[in-house]
Design brief:
With 146 residues, the protein is α+β, with helices and mostly antiparallel strands. Helices cover 27% and strands 16% of the residues.
């Protein structure tokens, strides 16, 4: 069971396509286009009072410089009156291009300004365990991928 306020969207066994104008970059001084796109879209659409985009890609088995795994922490007045699932759907709709392309996993903390002021804690991502490649049941479910 996921903690309240945390939704993880995963598209199993589909690594991101780099055809949508994104590229894998190496080196810390280079621009991060996927992160920048996520930040710009959420700022424009949600006018947040708080926004953090955390790239957790380095915690996963992806090439260095990949931008595939993100956490979004956002507090916005646009979330007032919306259920948690509707907040997450709103964020997913805003980021549909990134989710269809380079982003493999997205964790969302979506709060109202009042919720953020009351509890500004950021939920940490769990350590990556390698996905389902260690699950013996998966070999039977997805033959040829293990």
């Amino acid at each position: 069971m996921l903690p309240t306020g945390l939704l993880v969207l995963r598209r199993a066994f589909r690594w991101p396509s780099l055809s949508a104008g994104y590229s894998v970059l190496s080196g810390s001084s280079m621009e991060k286009p996927v992160e920048a796109s996520i930040r710009a879209k959420l700022k424009d659409a949600l006018e947040p009072i708080h926004l953090e985009i955390i790239d957790d890609s380095h915690m996963h088995d992806v090439p260095r410089g990949s931008e595939t795994h993100f956490r979004v922490v956002v507090a916005s007045r646009r979330f007032e009156g919306l259920s948690l699932i509707h907040r997450h759907r709103l964020v997913n709709d805003i980021l549909q291009e990134e989710l269809a392309g380079p982003v493999h996993a997205l964790s969302i903390q979506a709060k109202t300004p009042q919720q953020w002021e009351k509890n500004p804690k950021i939920i940490q991502s769990p350590k990556c365990l390698g996905g389902s490649k260690h699950d013996p049941q998966m070999a039977g479910k997805l033959p040829g991928l293990m």
